[in-house]
């Protein structure tokens, strides 16, 4: 029976990818929120700005987790166009 068992290659194992993404998202959300709370307590007096720093930290955590998960699923949230560099032959540059 064990001989007939098929293993899924890591490239196509969506369950493992989703588990990794969920774990990464929860950890980064919590750690960044705690960092925002610590920064808010350290730098601000107003409760509104303290909550804003917690929300900012949570947003940073979610954004970084989203970026990492999109890379894990073989895609990028932002595709940057690389500039194409064309070289001219040295003989043409010297003639001008």
TrEMBL record:
The keyword ATP-binding does not apply. The keyword Nucleotide-binding does not apply. Keywords: Membrane, Mitochondrion, Mitochondrion inner membrane, Transmembrane, Transmembrane helix. It is a single-pass membrane protein. Transmembrane segments: none annotated. Belongs to the MICOS complex subunit Mic10 family. Component of the MICOS complex, a large protein complex of the mitochondrial inner membrane that plays crucial roles in the maintenance of crista junctions, inner membrane architecture, and formation of contact sites to the outer membrane. This is MICOS complex subunit MIC10. The gene is LOC112489423.
């Amino acid at each position: 029976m064990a001989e007939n068992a098929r293993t899924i290659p890591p490239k196509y194992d969506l369950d493992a990818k989703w588990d990794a993404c969920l774990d990464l998202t929860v950890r980064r959300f919590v750690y960044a929120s705690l960092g925002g709370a610590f920064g808010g307590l350290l730098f601000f007096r107003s409760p509104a700005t303290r909550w804003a720093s917690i929300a900012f930290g949570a947003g940073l955590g979610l954004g970084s987790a989203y970026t990492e998960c999109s890379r894990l699923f073989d895609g990028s949230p932002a595709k940057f166009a690389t500039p194409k560099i064309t070289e001219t032959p040295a003989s043409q540059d010297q003639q001008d």
